[in-house]
Amino acid sequence: MVEAYSPVAHGEALKNPAIAKMAEKYGVSIPQLCIAYDLQLGLVALPKTANPDHMKSNADICFTISDADMEILKHLPRIENYGEFGIFPVYGGKYKD
Ligand SMILES: NC(=O)c1ccc[n+]([C@@H]2O[C@H](COP(=O)([O-])OP(=O)(O)OC[C@H]3O[C@@H](n4cnc5c(N)ncnc54)[C@H](OP(=O)(O)O)[C@@H]3O)[C@@H](O)[C@H]2O)c1
């Protein structure tokens, strides 16, 4: 089973306008959209939060992203700048696939 570490992109997904627009379309939070996306890809999603309310909403995934929107999400431009987290190889561009 493949595990999706950092499904909210260390928080960077929260700043992404395209992801925000899609989340708004479904009436869900950005982390919920990210987690649903991972689950629909057949991955285990491992979101981290220190906030109990976030933890509850992250576990409350009761919607399905359409096939068309999954394709849009799959082809969104790669986040190029992870700020302080760019030190990690996966965020620094070492792994491109
Ligand atoms: N073993 C490995 O190789 C490996 C690699 C990477 C990560 N991991 C682990 O995988 C987990 C992933 O954590 P991560 O920090 O890397 O990335 P993440 O889960 O993608 O992002 C965590 C960030 O998203 C925010 N967040 C989460 N849910 C939210 C919500 N509903 N609303 C608003 N903000 C929300 C959190 O802030 P709040 O606390 O404010 O909610 C935190 O700043 C961690 O346990 C990490 O240790 C393991």
Model description:
- This protein has 97 residues and is mainly α.
- It has one domain (3-92).
- The chain is built from 4 helices and 2 strands; from the N terminus they run βααβαα.
- It has helices at residues 17-26, 30-40, 52-59, 67-74; strands at 3-5, 44-46.
- The mean pLDDT is 92.
Descriptive labels:
binds NADP nicotinamide-adenine-dinucleotide phosphate; mainly alpha; single chain; 97 residues; two-stranded parallel sheet
Briefly say what this structure is.
The chain is mainly α and 97 residues long. It has helices at residues 17-26, 30-40, 52-59, 67-74, and strands spanning 3-5, 44-46.
Q: How are the elements arranged and paired?
A:
Layout: E1 3-5, H1 17-26, H2 30-40, E2 44-46, H3 52-59, H4 67-74
Parallel strand pairs: 1-2
Helix pairs in contact: 1-2
NADP nicotinamide-adenine-dinucleotide phosphate binds at residues 5-11, 14, 29, 31, 46-51, 54, 57-58.
Low-confidence stretches: none
Number of domains: 1
Enumerate the distinct ligands.
NADP nicotinamide-adenine-dinucleotide phosphate
* Mean pLDDT score: 92
Strand content: 5-15%
Terminal CA distance? 18 Å
Q: What percentage of residues falls in helices of 4 or more residues?
A: 25-40%
